[in-house]
Amino acid sequence: MATVPGQLVWEIVKKNNSFLVKQFGRGTQSIEFSRESNNLYNLNSFKFSGLSNKKTVTIQPVGKDLSVLLATTKTKKQNKPASLLHKSVMKKEFRRMAKAVENQVADNYYRPDLKNAALARLSAVNRSLKVAKSGVKKRNRQAVKVSAAMSVKKSVSLNGGNAIANLKGQKYSKRRRFDRPFSSVELSIEPGKQLKDMDSNKLKADIKKWAKAVVAYARQISGSFGKSRG
């Protein structure tokens, strides 16, 4: 196969090979991918194909120490699969690895048309290794609920304070009730008394009781806290 032109190989394998993956149905809407390791974009195209090109580039994670493997194909050993690839393992920072990829792919005129694809592949692999190294962060649901409850209570307290400031000097013949769904929660304002004459601690306790009702209702309807209906 080493003496067969790459374009001829591509015409033979482009529609039928073991690495081919077709997505999104048929016709113009379909997308074809290829899973060979030396395909930088994993696209089923002649430019990126690792089956029909004599010069290919492989960039992938390797080993348990989160290293990156850079491999290129030797053009003079196409009939020796065991020694076909020139491999180098990179354990440096991203800028130095990017410089090494540029030198290997573009600066020595190996495959300058794959320079951008190789750097994009290296960037994606590097980001994935950072996530693997740091681990998946588990969400503390209890902490989220507590912080959300505190924000709702704070909002209710502020809204309640504004309402009290606006109602000062007015008299009430009955208790003040809130709109649904919190109509069962009341502010205990005794008939004939003004707000400025009421016990501030008792009033704060009533506002806190209303805030707890807001939190309980939010848990019932969605299980998470959205905007309060204060």
From TrEMBL:
Coiled coil: none annotated. It comes from the Eukaryota. Residues 8-128 form the Ribosomal eL28/Mak16 domain. Keywords: Ribonucleoprotein, Ribosomal protein. One of its GO terms (molecular function) is structural constituent of ribosome. Belongs to the eukaryotic ribosomal protein eL28 family. This is Large subunit ribosomal protein L28e. It comes from Vigna unguiculata.
